[in-house]
From TrEMBL:
ATPase F1/V1/A1 complex alpha/beta subunit N-terminal domain residues: 10-74
Domain ATP synthase A/B type C-terminal, chain residue ranges per copy: 355-455
Organism: Acholeplasma brassicae
The encoding gene: ntpB
Plastid is among the record's keywords: no
Protein's recorded name: V-type ATP synthase beta chain
Tree of life domain: Bacteria
Length: 482
């Protein structure tokens, strides 16, 4: 029997409280009718005896304590799903906002997901090619992985997200059932328009599902947005055997909404005011990535978060790093000298890349090239630190060589630009050309057989215009003769 409750006991921020309620469940969907006939929706977020707290999706403005009617639906918040969601744009509550009408519903699913038996999971293998050299070669994204991007205020993470959506694909041998689900939380109108326009102009909208929550919309919707996106991803992956890449931006905005919501419930705050259950809440999102036995699809996640004050020890990046399998860190120093994408190589890593690259996946030399590029770029940083103390002119010849290698590496390898889409083979070939600038004796992370097969100093000289007296142009356009 459906009972309708008239009146509210309390309104506090995005929450309303009812007393004397029986037979309701946690996360149950609620219909709220206003005095003027309008309808809003909410969900049960707290139950204490017969008193319940209801989270109102559209906000609590204009609600009346005396004339508001509340009805409990008996089911949790559900996403309306079908394969028709591809190419569509929804708001954070899962309703279409692209003017193309409602979606024909094939299935309804609880947005909190379906618990997966850990035994049914398959270890992630095989890679997703993003077309970005610094990611594909050094922090390779593996299908079924969760690999976050750590950014900062004013950094071009939105542009990098668009580039990944435009260029991402799986290996041709794995089929063409690949799609991207893009969820934006707390973004401004102009940023949302930028995402929409970029995907349409690139001609990739047919394989993209967008969930947009704007900064002027209720924070409650911001909490629901990633769950709608991940529910859609699970539906496409496990029912239609598609390989789904989910990009979530900005996780920091989501966590701030969670903090505000927790405060309105009167919960005891934890570190920096975030709720004590922030770790488990983030895990409930991130752990929905993976591959399941007997299903042909996969869910891969790239959460993007902005670190307040570039502080990687902030609770949001700190906890995210514990849950996920690596991170891609954007460098403000590289961004300030005009390098795009400004991926900081040394603090970035992908913990699963070793099992999804090499012979049979990318190329047999991939791991060795990645190791050597990491090691050589670390030598560059050491040389630069020494030069800052004693001056570049006082460096040894090998340190000067590494300084030159660093300029070439940042200019050609990291700074590939927004429009350049490199295959994994092109990326590895470029890596070899850069390593071929160095003497063979310096390539101590690579087997001699691979050096014999791929090392080519003459090709490197020609590619980077290094002739008899090497001239290495810096980003500022000056030149230095050795």
């Amino acid at each position: 029997m459906n009972l309708q409750y008239i009146g509210l006991d309390e309104i506090n921020g995005p929450l309303v409280f009812l007393d004397g309620v029986k037979g309701v469940g946690f996360e149950e969907m609620v219909e709220i009718r206003l005095q003027n006939g309008g309808k809003r929706y909410g969900r049960v977020v707290q139950i204490e005896g017969e008193k319940v707290a209801i989270q109102v999706f559209e906000g609590t403005h204009d609600l009346s304590l005396t004339n508001t009617k509340t009805k409990f639906t008996g089911h949790p918040v559900e996403a309306m799903l079908s394969k028709e969601i591809l190419g569509r744009t929804f708001n954070g509550s899962g309703y279409p906002i692209d003017g193309l009408g409602d979606v024909f519903v094939d299935e309804k699913r609880d947005i909190n997901g379906i618990p997966l038996n850990p035994v049914s999971r398959i270890y992630p293998r095989d890679y997703i090619q993003t077309g970005v050299s610094s990611i594909d070669s050094l922090t390779t994204l593996i299908r079924g992985q969760k690999l976050p991007i750590f950014s900062g205020s004013g950094m071009p993470h939105n542009e990098l997200a668009v580039q990944i959506v435009k260029q991402a694909k799986i290996h041709e041998s794995k089929g063409d059932d690949f799609c991207v689900i893009f969820a934006a939380m707390g973004v401004k109108n102009d940023v949302a328009d930028y995402f929409r326009r970029s995907f349409e102009e690139a001609g990739v909208m047919s394989k993209v599902v967008m969930y947009l929550n704007l900064s002027n919309e209720p924070i409650i919707e911001r909490i629901l947005t990633p769950r709608f996106a991940l529910t859609a991803a699970e539906y496409l992956a496990y029912k239609h055997d598609m390989h789904v890449l989910v990009i979530l931006t900005d996780i920091t905005a989501y966590c701030e909404a969670l903090r505000e919501f927790s405060s309105s419930k009167g919960e005891i705050p934890g570190r920096k005011g975030y709720p004590g259950y922030l770790y488990s809440d983030l895990a409930s999102l991130y752990e929905r990535a993976g591959i399941v036995k007997k299903d042909g699809g996969s869910v891969t996640q790239i959460p993007i978060l902005t670190m307040p004050n570039d502080d990687i020890t902030h609770p949001v990046p700190d906890l995210t790093g514990y849950i996920t399998e690596g991170q891609i860190v954007l460098s403000r120093d590289l961004n300030q000298v005009g390098i795009f994408p400004p991926v900081g190589i040394l603090p970035s890593l992908s913990r699963l890349m070793k099992d999804g690259i090499g012979a049979g996946y990318t190329r047999e030399d991939h791991q060795s090239v990645a190791n050597q590029l990491f090691a050589s770029y670390a030598m560059v940083q050491d040389a630069r630190s020494l030069a800052s103390v004693i001056g570049e002119d006082e460096l040894s010849s090998i340190d000067k060589m590494y300084m030159d290698f660093g300029k070439l590496f940042e200019k050609y390898f990291i700074g590939q630009g927004f429009e350049t889409n490199r295959s994994i083979i092109d990326t590895l070939d470029l890596g070899w050309d850069l390593l071929s600038v160095l003497p063979k004796e310096e390539l101590n992370r690579i087997d001699d057989k691979l050096i014999s097969a791929y090392y080519n100093h003459e090709r490197a000289v020609e590619r980077f215009h290094i002739h008899n007296k090497p001239i290495i142009k810096t980003l500022a356009g000056d030149a230095r003769y050795e």
